[in-house]
Amino acid sequence: MLPSNPTDRIRTLDLIRGVAVLGILAVNVAGFAAPDSAVYSPDMPRLGVWQDHAVWLLTFVLFEGKMRALFSVLFGASLLLFVERANQAGRDGARLQARRLVWLMLFGYLHFALVWDGDILFLYAAIGFAALALRNWRTSQLVVAAALILATWQVWGAAMWLPSVATELAVESGSTSPKVLTQHAADLAEYRAEDAKDLAEAKLSWPAQVQAKWTNRGDDPVNLIAYNWGETLPWMLLGMALLRSGFFAGAWPRRRMVWLASAGIGLGGAVTIAFARWASRAHYPEVTIHFATSFGLALPHLGMALGYAALLVLAAPHLLRWVPGQMLEAAGRMAFSNYLGTSLVMAALCYGWGLGLFGQFGAAQRWTLVLLVWALILAWSQPWLTRYRQGPMEWLWRSLTEWRVLGFRR
After folding, report:
1. CB 312 within 8 A of CB 15
2. pLDDT-derived band of residue 310, with 50, 70 and 90 as boundaries?
3. Is residue 112 pLDDT above 90, yes or no?
């Protein structure tokens, strides 16, 4: 369901996107400021204190996976919204969107190569082509396709990961052979070697970092597609279905929205909390947590993401009357600029060519960086939009898509 005027924005979409662009940093900060193992344990790369454990668990329950799901849902909704608005204006929306995705792939690869190796833009653009091809499917077909793809992807993930998970749990319980113990120790040694590589690369100058990524893992963005398509595409399809059903426009009955918010956050949160408690008592088994965050908790992640979205849709009429809600809305309107800007700020804070804070903070201290960047995003987005029609990257992206210089100042 679209606004009658093709130029009108769905403000609720911007509000939810603003929450997502802030929330994703709560998870990504571990990848900016520490080796990747810090994502999976508060005791990596070094033992954490109780504050690190508490903050890691809170982040795991509230943000891990949920913001990724929310971003994917929003991307699918925005993709369809762009196409249908262009069609309403008498243009070829699919062709424009395809051109838009090509440029996004380029931006994503440059983001990976020049700034941060945790880029998701290349992935979203590539998967976006598949979502674009399915745009004319009925809402029910989109939902069924999303469920089938997600189920297939989870079966594949379980087949790939569960043998290693079983080995790790057997080692932790002490009920395994010396041969398996040796193999597990070798696997962990490889992880620690990767941590050492992350630390060494983070200390390099900017040209050396770019050279290292290009030489050693220039195909990482393509590999990410193979690993994540079965999660990302279903969530995009659900976003398209939700947009078409009027979810973001507030067309769903209030009772249904309250049920989705309660069930999504309640049930998804209960499962996530139960796993987090077990992980804490088991001293954060690395392989098992990696499996859970990547595959095993996909449905609780999605449930909580949809619950957050429903809650924000319900709250939007009230939130958007007040300054905090308007600041979040502005942050969401500039999500592309804020996402890339966050990477630049965090890289400047953490990498060797900047302040060199990489590896120096535990999970609790890393939240000082999160709060700093949140404050910057909220402080600049609304004033910028009072002077300019779009964020700087949004304007560049749209101008390249249209292949003409669009108006920028208000």
Report:
1. yes
2. very high
3. yes
- Among candidate residues 226, 221, 223, 232, the one with its CA nearest the CA of residue 69: 232
Pull the structure tokens for residue 251: 């067309």
Structure tokens at 102: 């090509």
Q: What is the pLDDT of residues 276-300, one digit of tens each?
A: 999 999 999 999 999 999 999 999 9
**β-bridge mates for residue 409, sequence order:** 388
Q: How many CA atoms lie within 13 A of 299 on its CB side?
A: 12
> b/e map of 372-407 (b: 16 or more CB within 10 Å)?
ebbeebbebbbebbeebebbebbbbbbbbbeeeeee
Residues 393, 336: Cα–Cα separation, whole Å: 6
Summary mean pLDDT of the chain: 93
Distance CA 39, CA 363 (A): 9
Structure tokens at 166: 């079983």
Q: Which helix or strand (DSSP H or E) is residue 178 part of?
A: helix 178-202
List alpha helices for 245-322, DSSP H: 254-281, 286-291, 298-319
DSSP state of 8: -
Three-state DSSP at 344 gives: helix
Alpha helices in 93-177 (DSSP H): 93-114, 121-133, 139-173
Q: Which pLDDT belongs to residue 293?
A: 94
**Which DSSP letter does residue 389 get?**
S
Under the banding of pLDDT at 50, 70 and 90, the label for residue 4 is very low
The C-alpha atoms of residue 56 and residue 50 are separated, in whole angstroms, by 10
